[in-house]
C-alpha cells in the first residue's frame, strides 16, 4: 500500500508539471499572437516558472506523508498490547516475576534475581541494580478475580521494605490486576512505591515504556 501511494504521488507530480508547462507554453503563444513584445527566451522562463509552481503545489498537497501513521501498523500495535495484557492476566506469581525480570534485564538493569516472598504465596520479589549502583526492588503479585489490588497488598510490601537505606532504592509493585484501589494508590504514593498494573506492564513490554524510576538510571 505504501509503495502504491508513493508511485501515485509522483505520478501526480509529473502530470502537474506537464499540465502547467503546457499552460505556460499556451500563454506564450497567445501573447505572441496578440503581438505582445517578448524576449526570445521568455518561453524558457515560463516553462521554468511552471515547473517551480507545480513542485510547490505538489509539496503542499500531493507529497506522500512518510511520517503518517499506518492504520494497519496501529492496529497491529493495538493487537500486540491486547495479547500482552491477556498473557499477563493468566500469569501466576512465578511466571510474572520471570517476565518482569526479563524486562529489567532487557532494559539494562544488572544483577537481576528473584526472591520468593514467604509471607505471601501470590508474590515474588525481584532485586536488581540500576546504572548508578542503587537498588531496585520490584514486587510481582498476581491476583485472582477482576477486582483491584487492595490497600493491604501495598501495606505488606511497604512493611517488608528495609528502612533507612542510603542508596535511594526504587520500589515498584507490579500486578496482573487491571487497576489498584484508591487506598492502595494513596498508600503507594506516601511510601514512594510505583504501581504497575496490567496495562502499564503491557506497555513496558511492547512499547518499552520503562518506569521512570528505572529507566533513567538503567545501565
Structure notes:
This protein has helices at residues 2-33, 42-61, 71-89, 93-106, 151-160, 182-191, 198-207, 212-215; strands at residues 110-116, 123-129, 135-141, 170-175, 193-196. It has a five-stranded mixed beta sheet, sandwiched between helices. With 219 residues, the chain is of the alpha/beta class. Helix 6 links the parallel strand 4 and strand 5. Helix 3 (71-89) crosses helix 7 and helix 5 (151-160) runs parallel beside helix 6 (182-191). It is rod-shaped. It folds into two domains: 2-61; 86-215, Trna Endonuclease, Chain: A, domain 1, CATH 3.40.1350. The protein contains eight helices and five strands, in the order ααααβββαβαβαα.
DSSP summary: helix tally:
8
Category from helices, strands and their pairing:
alpha/beta
Name of the top-level CATH class of the largest domain: Alpha Beta
CATH architecture of the largest domain: 3-Layer(aba) Sandwich
The CATH topology of the largest domain is: Trna Endonuclease, Chain: A, domain 1
| Total number of strands | 5
Strand coverage percent: 5-15%
User: Which radius of gyration do the C-alpha atoms yield?
Assistant: 31 Å
Short précis:
The protein contains eight helices and five strands. Mean pLDDT is 79; it is low at 1-5 and 66-70.
Amino acid at each position: 500500500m505504501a509503495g502504491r501511494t508513493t508511485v501515485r504521488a509522483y505520478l501526480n507530480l509529473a502530470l502537474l508539471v506537464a499540465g502547467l508547462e503546457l499552460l505556460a507554453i499556451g500563454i506564450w503563444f497567445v501573447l505572441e499572437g496578440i503581438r505582445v513584445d517578448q524576449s526570445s527566451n521568455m518561453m524558457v522562463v515560463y516553462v521554468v516558472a511552471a515547473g517551480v509552481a507545480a513542485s510547490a503545489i505538489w509539496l503542499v498537497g500531493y507529497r506522500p506523508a512518510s511520517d503518517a501513521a499506518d492504520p494497519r501498523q496501529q492496529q497491529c500495535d493495538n493487537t500486540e498490547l491486547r495479547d500482552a495484557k491477556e498473557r499477563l492476566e493468566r500469569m501466576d506469581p512465578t511466571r510474572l516475576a520471570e517476565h518482569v525480570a526479563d524486562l529489567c534485564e532487557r532494559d539494562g538493569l544488572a544483577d537481576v534475581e528473584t526472591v520468593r516472598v514467604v509471607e505471601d504465596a501470590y508474590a515474588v520479589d525481584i532485586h536488581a541494580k540500576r546504572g548508578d549502583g542503587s537498588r531496585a526492588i520490584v514486587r510481582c503479585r498476581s491476583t485472582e478475580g477482576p477486582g483491584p489490588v487492595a490497600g493491604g497488598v501495598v501495606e505488606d510490601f511497604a512493611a517488608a521494605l528495609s528502612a533507612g537505606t542510603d542508596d535511594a532504592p526504587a520500589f515498584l509493585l507490579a500486578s496482573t490486576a487491571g487497576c489498584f484501589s484508591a487506598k492502595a494508590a494513596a498508600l503507594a504514593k506516601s511510601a514512594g512505591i510505583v504501581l504497575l498494573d496490567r496495562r502499564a506492564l503491557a506497555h513496558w513490554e511492547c512499547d518499552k515504556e520503562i518506569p521512570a524510576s528505572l529507566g533513567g538510571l538503567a545501565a
